[in-house]
Design brief:
21% of the residues lie in helices and 28% in strands. By secondary structure, it is of the alpha/beta class. Strand 3 and strand 4 form a beta hairpin.
Length: 145
């Protein structure tokens, strides 16, 4: 993976899911994606698109209260982590969620900015900016599309 920055502009939730499907073609077991962005930025919508492209037929929901959702996909499991309710890296460590990084799946962390030292080196970073009522700007680090 390169250190290039790439931007993608989404004009709707469906566009965000389509972007997730496109992004999924670049992912392989062991990949970690660190998402950051405010409430309603489209983090879970992006994960829905990724999961769909990876072959999951499950209903993708935000793991805000469960912290981790695991979805079965065609090539490997997808671990969906939400750090919103965590109080930093120590809290993250106590959940055992870090075990997902070495479990042979693809891991996506929502609210990764809340656990900065827990995100492994080499993770793909995606910052999501709300640019309008339906539009979003996705800024990627660590992956060139």
């Amino acid at each position: 993976m390169s250190s290039c920055r790439t931007e993608y502009v989404s004009s709707s939730p469906l566009d965000t899911e389509d972007f997730g499907r496109r992004l999924a073609s670049y992912l392989k077991p062991g990949t970690v994606i660190a998402l950051s962005g405010g409430l309603g930025a489209g983090k879970t919508c992006l994960v829905k698109g990724i999961a769909s492209a990876l072959g999951s037929s499950e209903n993708i929901t935000s793991p805000t209260y469960t912290i981790i959702n695991e979805y079965q996909c065609d090539i490997c499991p997808l671990f969906h982590i939400d750090a919103y309710r965590l109080n930093g890296d120590e809290d993250f460590d106590s959940t055992g969620a870090g075990d997902c990084f070495s479990a042979g799946g693809i891991t996506i962390i929502e609210w990764s900015e809340r656990i900065p030292t827990s995100v492994p080196p080499g993770a793909i970073g995606i910052e999501i900016e709300i640019s309008g009522p339906q539009s979003r700007i996705f800024r990627l680090r660590g992956l060139s599309l």
